[in-house]
Design goal:
The complex is a heterodimer of chains A (285) and B (179).
Chain A lengths: L6 E4 L6 E6 L2 E13 L26 E2 L5 E5 L4 E9 L2 E8 L5 E7 L10 E9 L6 E4 L7 E4 L19 E3 L2 E6 L4 E7 L3 E4 L5 E9 L15 E2 L2 E2 L2 E11 L1 E2 L2 E2 H13 L3 E6 L5 H4 L1
Antiparallel strand pairs in A: 1-2, 2-3, 3-4, 3-9, 5-6, 6-7, 7-8, 8-19, 9-16, 10-11, 10-13, 12-15, 13-14, 14-19, 15-16, 17-18, 20-21
Chain B lengths: L4 H12 L9 H30 L23 H5 L2 E7 L6 E9 L3 E5 L8 E5 L2 H4 L10 E10 L4 E9 L12
Antiparallel strand pairs in B: 1-6, 2-5, 3-6, 4-5
Classes of the chains: A mainly beta (285), B alpha+beta (179).
Chain lengths: 285, 179
């Protein structure tokens, strides 16, 4: 009852995260990797262009779960506790909780994506909660201020969205978040690089982490987005940082904690190594 | 011979051409990686020179210390930390306020002792490297463990350095934890 740190619950049957406790708030949360299949067009007219380097155009509006379960091992320690999860042959992650850090790190490794299938794969990391978000989420597009995004809505014209997935995707430079204003809860995900992100259902956040598009979209590259390294498709590796807390309470705001973390991650301390084999500890001091 | 502009130009070229989006041909992406690597190498010389200026006493006639970084540390691969038994780790804080930072690097030894500038032994942890990282195509490293420690209260726009020794497992005594 007096626990004040970060707590994570895992569903032992599926191996997926079931809930998160942080800043004395518990949120029912599942996290999963899914993928959209890329649309294949004939590129003759705009509405029939393939998903490619320039455009994200999924074949269906609902993504496919890369796996509904994960094999996992837990490594507890005095400084960091890690959960190593493997979802399938090409998606795995390490969930980290460092001592005295009020954040959960998801260090994902995605790839090489299968390229022998008919359709390309556009992989997302989705966080699903029970928050009531009223079709609203926020992104820090263009590295400027946090902008309010409302699903299927534009502030200056009446929107008739023909591509409901990509039409609701926005650039995320370092942060995407959602708020349940009734429960005064905010859930934010910070990124280590610019990515596309959205909230396609209430209580959900998703970020695209990797994609291969097996057909050129005819916007000028003249090549499919299917790069290779060491004889296999590229492997993408990166981190998402999850924060949960009150939107605001007496003298506290989760936004301030998010800014602190963003500074520490985007202007991270640099580590250098120097040989000291000819140096005693006294010389070093 | 040291050229900060090499990295500036690489960044300029890549930002102009949206280099990370895939809107360039694959061989062009490889060329971007080449010019970016060259730029970073040039800047390593500058950072090493700058750190030497910060580290030395005004009156000291010490020889220059070589500071190198591990660009493949993100896949737990670093030939320096894996093949050196005694070395120093210098952590520079580019922010204008003190920060705590968890340092992590791959190692091959069975146990390590880390001492700070006050001679106090620092708490460490060995963490297994995830199997998915071990199998990343092209990773050239024998390391299966990362060593983790917490660099505490690194001063703003300043550094702290730590003395790292590979030791026998029985030589490591658990450091006393703060309340």
């Amino acid at each position: 009852d007096d626990y004040t740190g970060v707590k994570l619950e895992i569903d032992q049957t599926t191996g997926l995260i079931a809930s998160v406790t942080m800043n004395n708030i518990t949120v029912s949360l599942t996290q999963q990797y899914l993928y959209y299949e890329g649309y294949i067009g004939n590129n003759e007219i705009f509405v029939n262009r393939s998903s490619g380097a320039y455009i994200f155009r999924p074949r269906n509006n609902e993504p496919i779960a890369a796996s509904n379960r994960a094999n996992y091992t837990i490594h507890r320690g005095n400084l960091v506790t890690e959960i190593h999860q493997k979802f399938n042959d090409w998606i795995s992650q390490v969930v980290r909780m460092y001592k005295e850090e009020n954040v959960i790190e998801f260090d994902w490794v995605v790839g090489p994506l299968p390229s022998e299938d008919t359709f390309g794969k556009e992989v997302i990391n989705r966080f699903q909660t029970d928050l009531s978000t009223n079709a609203t989420f926020y992104t820090d597009s263009n590295g400027r201020e946090i902008l309010k995004r409302v699903r299927n809505f534009r502030p200056t014209w009446k929107l008739d969205l023909e591509e409901p997935v990509s039409g609701n995707y926005y650039p995320v430079t370092s942060k995407i978040l959602m708020r349940d204003t009734v429960r005064n809860i905010e859930v934010a995900v910070l990124t280590d690089r610019a990515q596309g992100g959205s909230s396609l259902h209430d209580g959900e956040l998703e970020l695209m982490v990797h994609r291969n598009c097996l057909h050129d979209d005819a916007f000028g590259v003249g090549e499919a987005l299917n790069e290779k390294a060491f004889g296999a498709g590229l492997v993408a590796k990166g981190s998402h940082y999850l924060m949960v807390g009150n939107i605001s309470s007496d003298g506290y705001s989760l936004a301030a904690a998010e800014r602190d973390l963003a500074q520490r991650k985007l202007l991270q301390a640099w580590t250098f190594f120097s040989p000291a084999e000819k140096q005693s500890i006294e010389d070093y001091k | 011979q040291v050229d900060l502009n090499a990295l500036r130009q690489a960044m300029g070229v890549m930002q102009h051409h949206d280099a990370v989006t895939g809107t360039e041909k694959e061989h062009v992406a490889h060329d971007y990686a080449r010019i970016l690597t060259e730029g970073i190498k040039e800047c390593e010389i500058i950072t090493s020179a700058a750190l030497n200026k910060l580290i030395k006493n005004q009156s000291s006639e010490d020889v220059d210390i070589k500071f190198s970084s591990c660009p493949l540390a993100n896949v737990s691969s670093c030939s320096f930390t894996e093949n050196t038994e005694t070395f120093t780790v210098t952590v520079y804080n580019p922010l204008s306020r003190p920060v705590n930072h968890y340092v992590r690097f791959p190692i091959l030894g069975e146990a390590y002792r880390i001492t700070d500038d006050a001679g106090v032994q620092i708490e460490t942890q060995l963490v297994p490297i995830a199997s998915s990282v071990l199998s990343i195509p092209g990773r050239k490293s024998e390391a299966t463990m990362d060593l983790v420690f917490r660099a505490s209260e690194i001063p703003p726009l300043g550094f702290k350095s730590y003395y790292v020794e590979s030791v026998k497992k029985e030589e490591v005594t658990a450091p006393k934890m703060n309340e």
